[in-house]
Amino acid sequence: MPLTRRDLIKRAGAAGLVAGWPGLSLAQSGGGILRMPPLVDATTSRAFDLLARTGETNFLGQSATSTWGFNNQTFLGPTLRLAHNSLTKASVRNGVSEPFSLHWHGLEIPGQADGGPHQPIATGATWAVDLNIDQPPATVWYHSHTHLRTADHVQKGLAGVIQLTDGRDDERGLPSDYGTDDLTLVIQDRRFDRSGRAVYDPGMHDRMMGFTGDVILVNGQYGAQAVVPKGIVRLRLLNGSNARIYNLASRAGRTLHMVSTDTGFLDRPIAIDSLQLAPGERAEVLLDFSDGTSDMLVSSSIANGGMMGGGMMGGGMMGGGMMGGSGGSFDILPISVDPSRRARIDRIPEGIGGTMPDLDIRGASRRDIALQSGMGGMFRRRRNQHSINGNSFEMDRLNFSVQRGATEIWAIDGQNMAHPFHVHGVRFQVLSENDGPVSSRNSGWKDTALVNRRAEIAIRFDQPAPASTPFMFHCHILEHEDGGMMGQFSVV
Asked: In 3D, which of 181, 215, 159, 213 has the Cα closest to residue 284?
């Protein structure tokens, strides 16, 4: 039986945490100091090992949930710090009960190293792969990309963050002390039953709209708070949820200074009041805590239009009140300031030195991409409910081939639903959104972008991908991906 609003009130009230529901935030009611994922720094060794393992994780302080993780983690994996221009040797061993593939989301590497669904690792086997990285510094990530099982595997915990670095953040004036003024935040939502176990049992609505949860986890932790020094703090944000779209902001009204999008730094910080982040997207923002006052990272409900608007993206109760179509906010992470510690950086930098996208699209060919979902009886009858250009994903069908070095313009039609659209092996430039200008959140280099009805992107294909290990393009609502809203292409 699902965890209810009343269960959460009772649990928080029994712990002496709240006086009543209006003051309760799900992100607040668990307690404890937020832990960062363990850091594996491979910038010198140019090698790292990942062991996928089974375990149990007690998220809510009640019954434990059977979960998967990497290395010493029972849920999620370590943060991998890699040199941005290196040949790094990766070893991934499968210690869980099912085959899985591991995709390096955001790395611009050849198809043979990409870790798509054509590269499953059998139970007990090891995948040794060379990651020939040559791209700007960025926050990217890794996660299971197993055919028909991606959503379930990510729910279980097969995901983690990658920091690509050139060691020059001090020159940029950016905080870089891991876990102190440079925080890695993996934001996910989960559902729990009354015993406190996480449950993933997608019904027809979940498969159609995407699976959303009732409780927010940050770095796999429920109710933890971040403690930061006085000064400038950097948040590396990853939406690791299956389907939920966040609109992140400071409850105290602090400005978010965005310094990086999916795959690279901006040329200068962009001051924004809120940041929309769809599944698979990353962003880095700076916040100024020089005044020593605490804050709360919050999110609001998002009216995306079509069937993804308002209450249908709600999924239940989300701190502070019921999440629905009214646009009410819910809590993500409390942030308190330790006045005894001062941050190394005390002002927002004027410039960062990143290269903004400016692809030469003269003579670029155009490709139309329609993201489609079956509805009603059609949805129930079809084994694969979702498709691209009328075709649901099939492992043995190559959708098209692209010439290496070519630039294309893709016109993406979301068919009145909001879809985070991801392309493997590339970074791209967003040219337009709904036939209008590009929003600030999409102004930098991207590999995933929320298509809310229509978008145009420009892509240059520099990495090879043979037909045996092609690149994927798909919706990053994981139930849509598993349900067929994915295609594949070679680069030759």
From this structure: 181
